[in-house]
Amino acid sequence: MKNSWTGGEAARPIESAEENLAVAVHRLEAGAFERLIERFETPLYSYAHSILQNTFDAQEVVQDAMMRAHRALTRQYDEQRCTELALRPWLFRTVRNLCLNKRRGKRHELEQPLANFDDGRMGPFVHLEGSDLERKQEVELLRRAIALLPVDARELIMLRFMEEMSYGEIAKTVGATEASLRGKVFRSLKLLREALEKKGVAYAV
Amino acid sequence: MRCRPTLTRVDALRTGELPAEEHRAVEKHLKTCKSCEDSAEDVERLANAVKALAIAPPRSIRESMRSTDFFDKVENVWVAFADRSIRMINGRSLDDLRSWYARRYGRGLEQATLPEPLRKQVVAALHGEGVEKPAIDLGDASELERSVLETLSKIPKGEVRSYSWLAAQVGKPRAVRAVANVVARNCVPFIVPCHRVVPAAGGVGKYAYGSRMKRDLLKREGVDVERLESLAREGVRFIGSKTTRIFCFPTCRDARRIREENRVPFHEAGEAKHKGFRPCRHCRPNVA
Fold first, then answer.
1. Which residue, A113, A171, A198, A173, is CA-closest to A147?
2. Do A147 and A87 lie in a common domain?
3. Predicted pLDDT of residue B127
4. Domain count within chain A
5. Which band of pLDDT confidence, cut at 50, 70 and 90, is reported for residue B67?
6. Which of residues 144-173 of A touch B (CB under 8 A)?
7. Could you give the residue numbers annotated as active site of B?
8. How far apart are CA A173 and CA B209, in angstroms?
9. Looking at A95-104, A122-131, A150-159, B64-73, which range is the least confident one?
10. Domain count, chain B
11. A166 to chain B: which residues are within 8 Å by CB?
């Protein structure tokens, strides 16, 4: 784990197999692209959903991003570029750009109260053990609270705490410096805490 | 370190992303400041809570992106296909098909049987017969590629056109080189008859499987290649009819039935128009 000011190796190092996933896809190894999808579809979808707050758009964006990634890795990038590629930030950045394009198209419909876009078709929770109803409710509250935040706070919270990216990787994904991101992440958390309190949850989850 | 810089760093501290001295400074401050310590705990709590927010996409993306297509051998060519349409044809070998397919679509190929109606159409197309062409899927081909291949398919059997004619037909009269490159990269040869395009200067020109094969293909379709070459040597590019005052490409079916005594050779379209001839509506030599 690198620990310098600018360094930004993964906070939790990603599996070593993944390091070469880009190269494997580039070499058209059997099942490589399936592994890539398997590994990233849930995080990317959750991220896209956090930005767009819409099931269908998020699905479309992730699919489009995967297609672009496949095209780039197999046909546009040479092997060296694939070797050097920081796959995770690259994929998230692709999704991010596509999401922002999508938002630009519907600027006026967005940023409305949560009730208007929470369509209740969020898909199954992934990390939810058992059928603990109380816990489910807490997660639901948290989700609603996050949906109330501005979009940049939403996406930072997802990248940092759901995907557990290092500040270095987030910097690559959203295009900001690590120092500024530390402040932004803290402010986002503060907003989240305020949103939770507004919902009457003092110490949620 | 004071409270504000500490707070922005508690999260990085959590994952050990701070440089050593800052790490120590933040820890030191947290020990002395109760409110910052509470905030740090809160950050930890929220961070752990958010992990549960991952949601799986409603439809698996893998399902919607199939990653192999199929191949089959029809007569002596290899055919790559998917979803009831032809995606690529190769007359050399399976390995060659695989490598071209991977380069273009980034996918592998699995053995499968070509569905019957499609197979019949392919066989007919290979013999230069059949009215109905098999369905062709060009994937993410460019606008130019699509229009070039579409125009190519309209050149009738037994006739040839020039590259400049083709470029003009697709509305890019100045992009002859680019159009010729698209023809050279034709991924469904035989079905889209790229062999029916020849250089205006004469000869049959180059071909992916060798000029010899191009010549044989054209001969089999009934093109009088030798005659075409002797015309080209004299610089004749169009044939007019004295009786109808219409001029055509020499291989146009209307030109072929002009009687010997009524034939008028032309070197260029302007010359014919000047003499009061109009271009044929079938082979459209005016745009060349």
1. A113
2. no
3. 83
4. 2
5. low
6. 146, 157-158, 160-162, 164, 166-168
7. 194
8. 47
9. A122-131
10. 4
11. 15, 17
